[in-house]
Specification:
The complex is a heterodimer of chains A (328) and B (497). Chain A has 13 helices and 2 strands. Chain A is mostly helical. Chain A has a single domain, classed as Orthogonal Bundle (ABC transporter involved in vitamin B12 uptake, BtuC). Chain A has a two-stranded antiparallel ribbon. In chain A, helix 2 packs parallel to helix 7, helix 3 packs antiparallel against helix 4 and helix 3 crosses helix 10. The N terminus of chain A is likely disordered. Chain B is of the alpha/beta class. Chain B has 2 domains: 229 residues, Rossmann fold (3-Layer(aba) Sandwich); 249 residues, Rossmann fold (3-Layer(aba) Sandwich). In chain B, the strands form 6 sheets. Chain B has a 6-stranded mixed sheet, sandwiched between helices. In chain B, strands 16-19-20-13-21-22 form a 6-stranded mixed sheet, with helices on both faces. Chain B has a 4-stranded antiparallel sheet with strand order 12-11-14-15, with helices on one face. In chain B, a hairpin with a 2-residue loop joins strand 21 and strand 22. Classes of the chains: A mainly alpha (328), B alpha/beta (497). Chains A and B meet through helix 8 and helix 9 of A and helix 10, helix 11 and strand 18 of B.
Chain lengths: 328, 497
Amino acid sequence: MTSITSGSLDFRAVLRKYGIVVIFLGLCLVLALVSPAFRTVRNLTNVVRQVSAIGLISIGVTFCIICGGIDLSTGSVVGLISVICASMAQDQFNPDQPISIVMPLVFAFGIALASGALVGFVNGAITAFGGIPPFIATLGMMTVARGVAQLYSGGRPIGRLKEGIIFLGSGSYVGIPIPILIYLLIAVFSWLLLSQSRFGKHITAIGCNIQAARICGIKIKRALVQVYAYCGFLVAIAAIIITGRTAGGNPAYGLGYELDAIAATVIGGTSLSGGIGSIPLCVVGALIIGVINNGMDLLRINPYWQQIVKGTIIVVAVVIDAKRQKKS
Amino acid sequence: MSKSFPGVQALQAVDLEVHKGVVHALMGENGAGKSTLMKILYGLYRPDEGEITFKGAPYRIKSPFDALKAGIAMIPQEVSPVPYLSVADNLFLGREKVRNLGIGLVKKRMTQSMARDLLSEFEIDIDVTKKMNELSIASAQLVAIATAVSYNADLLIMDEPTSALTEKEVQHLFRIIRDIKSRKGISVIYISHKLDEIFEIADAVTVLRDGRTVSTHPIGNITKDILIHDMVGRELKDFFHKEKGTIGDTLLSVRNLGVAGRFEDISFDLHKGEVLGVAGLVGAGRSELMEALFGVVPATSGEIAIHGQTVRIRTPEDAIRNKIGFVTEDRKLTGLFLKMDVKDNIILPDIDAYISRGMLQNRKIRKWCLEQVNALSIRTPSLDQTIDNLSGGNQQKVLIARWLLMQPDILILDEPTRGIDVGTKANIHELISKLAALGKGILMVSSEMPEILSMSDRILTMYKGRCTGELMSEEATQQKVLRMVTGESMDRGDRQQ
């Protein structure tokens, strides 16, 4: 008797957890029926490529939210890393730009990734050691990073980049666009990191019950710093991809990305109160946003309406999350 | 005025009758149901059965607001004023005197003068323009009392009002109580653990035990011994008894340990194979002592030695490294990861032992967790079950399993069987006994007298942050321990019965 009850309960739990996948498939089905342009391989590849940057960021944000925090600085950091990376991936020295450095791409990428991780490290350190809520710490960083990006670039785009970085943004390998490959790789790695590593268990525990985590001997401050640094690192990868795809750095890049990333995370079922979250579902969340954007473009929906629709979807996702929380 | 009130879950068939103009004391051990009963009267909980009559009419309320309107006010054990508002504003919170402009502008000067009058009526000398958070706890308590009285309530409930007060302030409080009783005919339900206070201020006393009314006496007809007997009165033979094993070498020795403002000068030894019970009332500093031993709030003075070696325990990691396990008092607040599954909840403190090349070894984790789950007969559909779905008793077992996994030498159990059913309770007691037989040293805090008596080899009693004595289990009786934890007898072996 007990097995029957628990069986049916499990089914409901599975549906509750993976319902978003069903919604995603339904959404794709509807769009495929109403729009012939949607169901082409080229369009679908395009959707995923466009999603990859936001998708990478939302993976980082998922980690932050699971440990009970948030990162609002990701969009600005995209702008900052984009100009840093562009200024160091110069094809040749360009005296018109405030900073123009020619060096092997590997170093340029290394510096860009390290800068992203450093910004995240600062976010985490302010939160962990300053005792300041991550909402405030990263809100401050959001403004500061944008300012630094403008200052660094003189407020202008930075062009004339090496071929290599442009390939990274728009090239393909065995028919698959590079950004998608990177996204896939990072998603798998992050999935393992979250569900199969000590780090993942520790941050889930912190987001679940910080006091109990302390009793279990978890080094909370160190874990928080690591979470934000990892998020910053993923944001830097996204920034490099965007820079490569547009063949230029721009301090204005990433405007509003932080909200899209949070939206993808929340739609993917990560609980804003911490302790629950999954990387595969976060990927689905990002895909849903991408498909909605794409679908609305194809159906020629007024861009103003698009914003309204997107905002509504985010709120609905959070309401569903809150309901689910109450139920369990 | 009377109220009768039989039958609630945490309370079963409680009858209580309070007369007009009387100070009625309510006594009982922790968990006897005093607070639950009072919360029902104040509209915070609702009874499942039974009825209450107040001033001759049926009393049915849904919220504290209704209670206040009906004429019942409560001063909770820990008052929670609005810290950044002034004393005057706090006094009139929710019933501000406002100007007739329709926008709710507060009449500041009038509020302040009314507040001043109110406080001076009770000779409370506090500047009403001060912010609430600038007051001492005692002053805040007095303000809370004045607030409650100012509602013109007919019945005032005071839940351990003196726990934060000094002797002088207690006397002040008693003057206020006598004053409102004689001048206004207000009745008071006075909850306290302190026998002396009860005899000084109360006119009648009701004892609750295990959610039932045990007795009601006028204060003139009763002695302290009768009260103590009524409070404990349970039969010890119903409890699992720890099997007497061999007590080994000293495992842990604590010397003059203290945490500023929480407890001081605690010294004791814990031996292999021994269960050391720590008894005391809420606020005696027992949990604080355990937290210091585990590095949650590290000690500010004194020494801790394990196996004869002095150790520094500044964080829980230090404690874990020294093979100490800690099942905390409040399993939901500081123990469980409610959204995580059973196996994650078990392995977290010992997770390093299950990592190979950066990855968790799921097979090994499952094997060990399953072993624990079976050994402790934890009832769960699977190891992947979210812990929130388990019963309280099984959750508690999971917490114990968590600390057993790392093979501790010393296990601290703070209220190991609080709020769990009798069967599981016996399971856990049996387990504690077995662990002691394996040579582990166990520190067990419990508010339940029979648990302390039946499980401990030795009992340490605490009162107001100090150690009031140590008893071997053979010489311990409920009466003796209760005297020691209420500060009644600091010396041992005084007259019994």
